[in-house]
Amino acid sequence: MTLAELAPQLTEIARQCYARGWAPGTSSNFSATVSRDPLRLAITASGIDKATLTPAEIVEIDGLGRVMTGSGRPSAESRLHLAIARARGAGAVLHTHSIWSTIISEVAEGGVAIEGYEMLKGLDGVATHEHREWLPVFENTQDWAGAAPEVEGFLTEHPDTHGFLIRRHGLYTWGRDLAEARRHLEVFEFLFEVIGRKRG
Amino acid sequence: MTLAELAPQLTEIARQCYARGWAPGTSSNFSATVSRDPLRLAITASGIDKATLTPAEIVEIDGLGRVMTGSGRPSAESRLHLAIARARGAGAVLHTHSIWSTIISEVAEGGVAIEGYEMLKGLDGVATHEHREWLPVFENTQDWAGAAPEVEGFLTEHPDTHGFLIRRHGLYTWGRDLAEARRHLEVFEFLFEVIGRKRG
Amino acid sequence: MTLAELAPQLTEIARQCYARGWAPGTSSNFSATVSRDPLRLAITASGIDKATLTPAEIVEIDGLGRVMTGSGRPSAESRLHLAIARARGAGAVLHTHSIWSTIISEVAEGGVAIEGYEMLKGLDGVATHEHREWLPVFENTQDWAGAAPEVEGFLTEHPDTHGFLIRRHGLYTWGRDLAEARRHLEVFEFLFEVIGRKRG
Amino acid sequence: MTLAELAPQLTEIARQCYARGWAPGTSSNFSATVSRDPLRLAITASGIDKATLTPAEIVEIDGLGRVMTGSGRPSAESRLHLAIARARGAGAVLHTHSIWSTIISEVAEGGVAIEGYEMLKGLDGVATHEHREWLPVFENTQDWAGAAPEVEGFLTEHPDTHGFLIRRHGLYTWGRDLAEARRHLEVFEFLFEVIGRKRG
Questions:
Q1: Is the pLDDT of residue C25 over 90?
Q2: DSSP-assigned letters across all residues of chain D
Q3: CA-CA distances (angstroms) from residue A155 to A41, A92, A173, A191, B161?
Q4: Which residues in A have their CB inside 8 Å of a CB on B?
Q5: Rounded CA separation D74/D58 (Å)
């Protein structure tokens, strides 16, 4: 799909996430893959309020994070979107800042294990509630150009991962397309809230 | 009522449940009885996102769970819908995945007793807040064809039951029609949240 | 105001309360005073789903709770609405079933004291946050014809009360008109949630 | 911008805050700077329900809090809006009463330190999550004419402050314009909820 086709879809997803409190202020960013060879992503520009996002605020970047089409600066975290697109062949990447993902990212040590819930079957390839999902927690940084290769390496080595957290920051999840990425987002947000409230 | 009449009503209920966070991702399924002899249910097809469900994604199944009308695969859990329709003469069955029903299903042992709340009077046949409602918690399984008869047996032996939980999975409730089933759903969700927050 | 004028306003308030989760299932009832001499109330009929309430489901009752205009049975709790209208000269009475009022009604002993919050100034006649508001908790009953006089006596003796709770049941609050009653409702719900979460 | 231009914008912000539960009853007030020399603010009149606020209920006041344009009495807290406009050159000031800001204002001692969260980067001038934000908690009073100079002095001496709390009352935050003030509000509400839930 082209930037022109993906931009309204990303805008709609961003609006839904904002409405649910998962993208407050100018936080969060959302991308979808325009082409794989060469790699091109449609991605929300940096510093945009998700409550009022318009398709014109979605830019197209290349594999080095340079803007190919559209005006606006991509977020430093576009490096993570590119890493996920490369390592996992993702068609869409959603990065959100919810209350519960922030809390879980803070209290977890190296990662979060989630096991035994029916809701896990909403994750691609998971056929039973007996599945054990493990999300790593990466430390936050302001240098994603430097840190993204570590994340990309991890995802390449762990192809069964569906998401990860960044400490006191938020969630990254993805899917082969926007619908699957959105389903993964809902699954993880649900499970974080269950775990967070049980602990509370 | 026919499939054509029930499908839009089931779609509307599903949409409301999704909006309230009770049917995230592709979870949850909803049915209504088309005929009793032979038994026919209108039921949401498996793996459909409830945020975007359309009437065309409701199928009609027979008493063995085979699709009679419509395209789409019914969920393995249609066995439980059929069991409830048979054991309790239900006109509608709602199965949801909420945060609080998941938490309650996890912390309860064999079942949950709820007693002394005015809200209990929203359940069919309950005339006083002094009523004691008991919901069994069944263990989760991926083999509902095998496990549904046990549930059907329980419901036949306990005709005063208004709902049950599946461990780390969610709630089943029902009613003589969709309006009553929805009322029961609201009553149970309210009571689970009260109990869950009190415990928290 | 006449029944015809008040019914749409009560319907709108009920719809708002339902949307906020304060009137699940067929719970809650709402009234406004049509005339004082003789006493006449417009009140929601019993057993009506507040999600789909229409003005035709509001009836007019006299001071003994008998239906004067409209079809439908008034709730047994209309006795409490009449008691409040008489003891406090209320122009509107709102009775809701929220999560937090239910929890507070259960953990409080004879009543709830709320003190020191700026939000208290939203109550009629309260000019400083240093105010101490006291809400009695009455035990629940299914015989309100018998129990309403005790409530009426209490309210007559304590003219500074703005609301009361019924154990494991919900809140009653009122005002000189629907706007003031709604403001009192929002004030109490806010304060119950603050107190409930602090305790949690 | 003129009062006529700002009033609809303030009305819209108030409506959003009401919908999110941050401005219940007649609580909260919102202002934007019309001119700096002489100082003029557009501000919500006192005692108005934010659910039904209209642009006609926004008045223009001068630097002494006197109404220049419009009918309606400004809140006693307009003194704080003026103090913030003077000390920080704010173009907009938002004062809200949320559940979590009330709880945090009650449990904090002299102030609240928030550190290490990515969301802090939504505050003007904050470039890293390693930032430590400190919000003072001022004691509540009914004499803001007397107390506002202390607040103004504090803000002048601490130009890096983005907001403050009033004990058991609520939050004040601001920005160079309404969009920035709203972003700051969302950032603080998010962080209060994270901190409050973690503590819970």
A1: no
A2: --HHHHHHHHHHHHHHHHHTTSS-TT--EEEEEEEETTEEEEEEBTT--TTS--GGGEEEEETTS-EEESSSPBPTTHHHHHHHHHHH--SEEEEE--HHHHHHHHH-SSEEEEES-GGGGGSTT---TT-EEEEEEEPP-S-HHHHHHHHHHHHHH-TT--EEEETTTEEEEEESSHHHHHHHHHHHHHHHHHHHHHH-
A3: 18, 15, 12, 21, 47
A4: 116-119, 122, 127-129, 179, 183, 186-187, 189-190, 193-194, 197-198, 200
A5: 9
Q: How close is the nearest chain A Cα to the Cα of B53, in Å?
A: 13
Q: Give A186's contacts in chain B (Cβ within 8 Å).
A: 24-25
Q: How far apart are the first and last CA of chain C?
A: 43
Please give the torsion angle defined by the CA atoms of residues A11, A16, A17 and A20, in that order, rounded to the nearest 10 degrees.
160
Q: In the complex, which subunits touch D with 3 or more CB pairs below 8 angstroms?
A: A, C
Alpha carbon A35 to its chain's center: 18
Q: Is the ipTM of this complex over 0.90?
A: yes
Whether D99 contacts D89, CB under 8 Å: no
Q: Are C188 and C21 in contact (CB under 8 A)?
A: no
Q: Distance (Å, rounded) from C-alpha A182 to C-alpha C191? A: 36
The whole-number mean pLDDT for each consecutive block of 10 residues of chain B, a chain of 200 residues, reads 96 96 93 98 94 95 97 93 98 98 95 97 96 98 96 97 98 97 98 92
Taking residues A143-172, report their average pLDDT. Answer: 97
pTM value is 0.96
Give the three-class secondary structure for A26.
coil
CA–CA distances in Å: residue D86 to residues B84, D90, D152, D153, D181: 68, 7, 8, 10, 16
Distance between CA atoms of B14 and B29, rounded to whole angstroms? 8
Task: Give percent helix, percent strand, percent coil of chain C, each to the nearest 5.
Answer: 40, 25, 35
**Helix axes B99-107 and B178-199, enclosed angle (nearest 10):** 60
pLDDT, tens digit, for every residue of B79-137? 999 999 999 999 999 999 999 999 999 999 899 999 999 999 999 999 999 999 999 99
Chain-chain contact of D190 with A106 (C-beta, under 8 angstroms): no
Cis bond before residue D38 (omega within 30° of 0): yes
Helix (H, G, I), strand (E, B) or coil at B79: helix
Determine the Cα–Cα distance for residues B117 and D141; give it in Å rounded to an integer.
40
Is residue A185 a contact partner of residue A14, using CB atoms and an 8 Å limit?
no
Give the separation between CA C107 and CA C96, rounded to whole angstroms: 18
